[in-house]
Amino acid sequence: MTDQPQPLLRKIIHIDMDAFYASVEQRDFPEYRGKPLVVGGKPDSRGVVATASYEARQFGIRSAMSCNKAYQLCPTAIFVYPRFDAYSAVSKSIREIFSRYTDLIEPLSLDEAYLDVTEDKLGIGSAMDIAKSIKDAIKNELNLTASAGVSINKFVAKVASDMNKPDGLTFIGPSKIEAFMEKLPVEKFFGVGKVTAAKMKAMQITTGADLKKLTEVQLLAQFGKSGKFYYQIVRGVDNRPVQPHRETKSVGAEDTLAEDTNDDAVMHDLLKQISETVAKRLEKYGLKGKTVTLKIKFSDFKLITRSRSFSNAIDAAEVMYAEAIKLLNEAEIGNAKVRLLGITLSRFYDDVLPEKIQDNQLEFDF
Questions:
Q1: What is the CA 257 to chain-centroid distance, rounded?
Q2: Top-level class of domain 177-233
Q3: I need a labelling partner for 304 at 20 to 30 A (CA). Which of 72, 127, 137, 153 fits?
Q4: Average pLDDT, the chain
Q5: What is 12-19+85-174's CATH number?
């Protein structure tokens, strides 16, 4: 064991619905059951897979894959557009089930959340028993399945929930956390994306055990502020509390073009549609922001962003649209062809933003 501060002995549950959008579709439409189902758009579209049923995943179909690629992998799959209103309604019902046990609920999205049950409303005591009770309620009342991870902190609970999907229930206790973290591949670490994982592997860091060999100073030098988080988490230390009232940090939307293009008129038309979608979402949440960010993904999947901040908060579609056009022009993409465009509005509050791992971003394809 190390001399690092020991984790706070909370009882944390991470609940993650199984193939949520696809499962809701299969529940509501019997003709989809037992069949490969892709939620995201038409097979010949440029859209992306939002969720695939487990039957579809057997063919290698995954979230964020293009619908066209998904169709190539499984031509017999059923393709449907997302019904976000239906998913949102189910999510509210799931949240109601959570609230029977605790008020310390931190939603991460429509289909997953952290729960702190250190002190539970019903006096059950055992976090495993509570997680099983929640899973049973979701199955019996909503005819859906969820996977749960149970541990003493958020990071380990989240990893645990993904270990035995679907319909899994996994507990990783205090005495097993460090050994578990040492065996964990770096790409499984929450907050480690593809770029960071590639950088780590180039440094011969492939597991938590490799990461643990570096000092905190070395990790800070290589990965900035995230280095401190990596240093602590590989030792099982994650003192982040469950935050039941997290502030939304950004609202955005993005869409894939019908075909790769560098035609200004086509891109401007899409940006107009996206800005209107973002404005509607801002109105729904009653938010105004000071920073507009333009997202550009090229035909070779290279991704860039450009941002500009205002002195006063905005929410109007026409203002976001005009600013997105300016940012697009300033990007000087030349003859490069664009695959996807997105607009995000942020800085709703004047306080200092938390680190990226604590952001709560509302952003969807449409």
A1: 23
A2: mainly alpha
A3: 72
A4: 88
A5: 3.30.70.270
330 is a catalytic site residue: no
Domain 250-365 has CATH 3.30.1490.100: yes
pLDDT at 361: 39
- Do 330 and 308 touch, CB atoms closer than 8 A? no
158, 129 contact by CB (below 8 A): no
Q: What average pLDDT does the segment 72-98 reach?
A: 93
Q: What is the pLDDT of residue 349?
A: 55
**Residue 118 in 3-state DSSP?**
coil
Q: For the segment 297-308, what is each residue's pLDDT rounded down to a tens digit? A: 999 888 999 999
Domain spans, the chain: 12-19+85-174, 22-84, 177-233, 250-365
As given in the structure block, the two tokens for residue 196 are 């960071």
For position 351, what pLDDT does the model report?
35
Q: With CA atoms as reference, report the closest residue to 210 among 198, 201, 223.
A: 201
Please classify residue 44 by burial: count the beta carbons closer than 10 Å to its beta carbon, then call 0-12 exposed, 13-18 middle and 19+ buried.
Answer: exposed
- Give the Cα separation of 80 and 192 in Å (integer): 31
- To the question of pTM greater than 0.90 for the whole model, the response is no
Identical fold, 12-19+85-174 and 250-365: no
CATH topology of domain 22-84: MutS, DNA mismatch repair protein, domain I (3.40.1170)
359 appears as a binding residue in the annotation: no
Which residue out of 55, 112, 178, 254 is catalytically annotated? Answer: 112
Rounded to 5°, angle at Cα 298 from 297 and 301? 80
Q: In this predicted structure, what is the pLDDT of residue 4?
A: 53
**Rounded distance, CA 222 to CA 327, Å?**
30
Instruction: Give per-residue pLDDT as tens, 249-261.
Output: 788 999 888 889 9
Cβ–Cβ contacts within 10 Å for residue 2, how many?
11
Q: In Å, how far are 187, 188, 199, 240 from 194, measured between CA atoms? A: 7, 10, 9, 24
> pLDDT tens, 101-149?
999 999 888 899 999 999 999 999 999 999 999 999 999 999 999 999 9
CA distance 75 to 80: 14
Q: Which string of DSSP letters, residue by residue, matches 124-172?
A: ---HHHHHHHHHHHHHHHHS--EEEEEESSHHHHHHHHTTT-SS-EEE-
